[in-house]
Write a structure and sequence with these properties.
The protein contains 28 helices and 17 strands. By secondary structure, the protein is an alpha+beta fold.
Length: 635
């Protein structure tokens, strides 16, 4: 697990020298504290005799082949060079096959097989990799740079092409350090951020800077960038299979996925929240280990947000070497750190506990398994149940006849995490909308009408005609013909999972030099889950049924039936207590950076309404505060 960066330039005016490449590389030192290496070639010429410069930078967190496998690495004749961030879990199988075709290996790491596989099959190599990765390959014979990102988007990769120079990096910090590309904010990105709490690919907060989408590769040659999809994921297909065969296949796939992800030359543990997904991953890992594995949970001294008692129950049942951390998360202390590490506005407040858990876990191990992905793959979210229920209600009643709708809308909000009133309001507000729009209504932070009331006239004029909904709608369209739960699940796999959850985990963990591996996101598990009939995963308003049917004997039965808590913080209270001074000193300040974009009086009204307990705007205020803090730090 590492950080990569580099550049290719076609003009001496924009050359990257060793000093600048070192600055770009060092900007992501937190991703790889164990080693730093660079390679620069300023004397390469293309087929027409034009000079081409190329530089690759690498920061390493040593996981496999601790003494070897240094990067940038080269093939036998030096014509292909590569830096890569991540882990290739099927590298041993690939290595044996490549050795059989005559390749010689200089290391025992998981990266070198990618290099030789590229030599043999070019960009077709990426579809043969099982792993999480961001890869950059310089192909001197073809005079091209190839960038690639794993199917699910577990590892990030940014790039920008300007003035005959392409720069790239694991984080936007690399491009900021390169200079000349992160200059102008994209207004559409702010609109997207306030909709989703993240900025969807291929855009970023900066005009002209791109995220490589998951499951894609990009080729830079002849001064142009070409982006292509290599992952053929089709969630519209349902494959007939018996329930027994489905359970057998899921057991086989997930067990193999965990086994592959337990390969490590450094200490390895597992996150254990006490929820279904992390409990199952931990249970499988423990069944594959001949000694108690280390497990970690984090608790808060607020009962409504602490599920560590369930984690302790699972740990005792499995016999793991369990450690519970307890922290009182302080938004004042951590918010500036998050704004620096996440590079662009990122509003998922669960980044706070994820940061603390990664920080504390890293003191014990270097690699941790995680249960991310179970909700998306196996219909675990409450919003899936809401979508299913809303379809039933719409068939029974016209919207205006839904019993009690007016009464519920007039009830005051509760600040409790699982407020029935708040969820009922959001549910009823969305009932009359088309299905995909209805689903967005439960996902979005600021509804379209509220965003419109917040935006300044000048900002509205600067916005393009694109609708942020188009991102979700395009993902929704890919599962045409399926039931609403399967469509919502597939949409989340293509949007929320890579853009929110994977981003959150990557940055929080790598900011603490911890590698997190997510067995449920093995592409074989993802593809298999998408083909399953919905009745195996979701019935009668309950999800994750096939996980219980397949692995139920491995963990306490109560874990499957308890209410889902998620991974949250008491954010509503924060804005009435410890974050209140910060809000008034930043968001409501005369020199607030958000003022060119948002109406100060409307922001003040949101703050007032929340502070006086009229309505819970905690998550909205968190996103606004993140945006303000980001603007102050990066502009």
């Amino acid at each position: 697990m590492c950080g990569i960066t580099g550049a290719v330039w076609l003009s001496a005016k924009v050359a990257v020298d060793e000093t600048l490449l070192s600055k770009m590389t060092d900007s992501i030192a937190h991703r790889g504290p164990d080693d730093s290496q660079m390679w620069i070639d300023t004397d390469h010429h293309d087929a027409y005799g034009n000079r081409v410069g190329v530089g690759l930078g690498f920061r390493r967190l040593s996981i496999i082949d601790l003494e070897g496998a240094r990067q940038p690495m080269a093939n036998e004749d030096g014509s292909v060079r590569m830096v890569f961030n991540g882990e290739i879990f099927n590298f041993k199988t690939l290595r044996r096959r490549l050795e059989g075709t005559g390749h010689t290996f200089a290391t025992h790491g998981d990266g070198e097989p990618v290099l030789h596989l590229y030599e043999d099959v070019g960009t077709d190599c990426f579809s043969q990799l099982n792993g999480m990765f961001a890869i950059a390959i310089w192909d001197a014979k073809r005079n091209r740079l190839v960038l690639a990102r794993d199917r699910i988007g577990q590892k990030p990769l940014y790039y920008a092409l300007k003035d005959n120079r392409l720069v790239f990096g694991s984080e936007l910090k690399c491009l900021v350090a390169a200079g000349g590309v992160c200059n102008e904010i994209d207004p559409a990105a702010i609109d997207e951020f306030l909709t989703y709490q993240y900025i969807p690919p291929p855009g970023t907060i900066w005009k002209g800077v791109r995220k490589l989408p998951p499951g894609h590769f990009a080729v830079f040659e002849n001064g142009q960038v070409r982006v292509e999809r290599y992952w053929d994921y089709d969630p519209s297909i349902e494959i007939p299979i018996s329930h027994g065969d489905a359970c057998d296949r899921l057991r086989e796939l997930l067990t193999d996925s965990v086994r592959l992800r337990m390969q490590s030359d450094v200490p390895l543990g597992s996150f254990l929240s006490g929820g279904i997904d992390s409990s199952l991953i931990t249970a499988i890992a423990q069944s594959l280990s001949d000694q108690p594995i280390k497990t970690f949970s984090i608790g808060f001294p607020v009962a409504d947000f602490d599920e560590t008692a369930y984690a302790a129950q699972v740990a005792k049942h499995l016999g793991t070497d369990h450690q519970r951390f307890e922290v009182m998360p302080h938004g004042v202390d951590v918010i500036d750190k998050l704004v620096w590490h996440y590079d662009e506005p990122f509003g998922d407040s669960s980044a706070v506990p994820t940061w603390y858990l990664s920080e504390l876990t890293r003191k014990q191990v270097t690699v941790a398994l995680s249960g991310d992905g179970g909700d998306e793959l196996f219909a675990g979210y409450e919003r899936y149940r809401a979508l299913w229920l809303s379809n039933k209600l719409q068939k029974m009643f016209p919207l205006h006849q839904v019993p009690g709708i007016g009464l519920v809308q007039r009830l005051p909000d509760s600040e409790k995490r699982r407020s029935v009133v708040r969820r009922a309001k959001r549910f009823l507000e969305a009932l009359g909308q088309p299905t995909a729009r209805r689903y967005l209504n439960w996902l979005q932070i600021f509804p379209e009408s509220l965003r419109a009331s917040l935006y300044s006239d000048d900002f509205v004029e600067r916005l393009p005609g694109d609708d942020p909904f188009d991102f979700l709608d395009a993902a929704w369209a890919r599962s045409k013909g399926r039931d609403v739960v399967s469509r919502a699940s597939a949409s989340d796999v293509l949007t929320y999972l890579p853009c929110d959850l994977c981003t959150k985990v990557d940055i929080a963990s790598m900011g603490n030099a911890l590698e997190v591996r997510q067995p449920l996101l093995d592409y074989r598990v993802v593809e298999f889950a998408a083909t399953l009939p919905v009745r195996y995963k979701f019935r009668g308003g309950r999800g994750k049924l096939i996980l219980q049917d397949t692995f139920g004997s491995m963990i306490p039965p109560s874990i499957f039936t308890r209410k889902k808590m998620g991974f949250g913080i008491p954010i509503a209270n924060w804005f009435r207590d410890e974050l209140k001074p910060m809000v008034h000193e930043t968001l409501l300040a005369e020199d607030a950076k958000i003022q060119p974009f948002l109406r100060r009086d409307r922001v003040a009204e949101l703050v007032r309404s929340h502070e006086q307990n009229e309505q819970n705007h905690g998550y909205r205020l968190w996103n606004l505060l993140i945006l303000e803090k980001w603007l102050r730090r990066w502009t």
